[in-house]
Design brief:
Blueprint lengths: L4 H17 L3 H12 L17 H24 L30 E2 L5 E2 L2
Antiparallel strand pairs: 1-2
Length: about 120
């Protein structure tokens, strides 16, 4: 059975950890292997490798694509609030220059469409 490189490295680390934890474990495993070498593996311990068929892979890809398209469409149909609301005259509000060290924000309104400087 061949494993991917990452899986083999993981198994090697586990093996080394087991060897470091119990020095007699290797001897016990060899003894067990000799006792059971002529026996067939029990059916309850057999694990069949199951791979996805083409229709299953295609279905998973279609579901993933539909999810991505749905998220994009939700973002387009329901955008967040505008960064700065329009001023009283219907024209877009403009950003005011701020001193260094402060973050930019929308200009404050003081009523009747008058925009105050921060």
């Amino acid at each position: 059975m061949s494993l991917r490189a990452g899986q083999q490295r993981s198994l090697n680390r586990i093996e080394q950890s087991l060897r470091d934890d119990d020095r007699h474990l290797g001897t016990l495993f060899e003894f067990f292997a000799r006792l059971t070498r002529d026996e067939a593996m029990p059916l309850t311990e057999m694990v069949a490798a199951r791979r996805w068929s083409r229709p299953q892979r295609a279905l998973a890809a279609a579901i993933g694509l539909a999810a991505v398209v749905s998220v994009i469409m939700l973002g387009v149909l329901f955008p967040g609030p505008p960064a700065c609301p329009a001023s009283a005259g219907g024209a877009p509000a403009t950003m005011q220059p701020l001193p260094a060290g402060r973050t930019a924000a929308c200009p404050a309104r003081t009523g009747r469409g008058v925009i105050a400087r921060p």
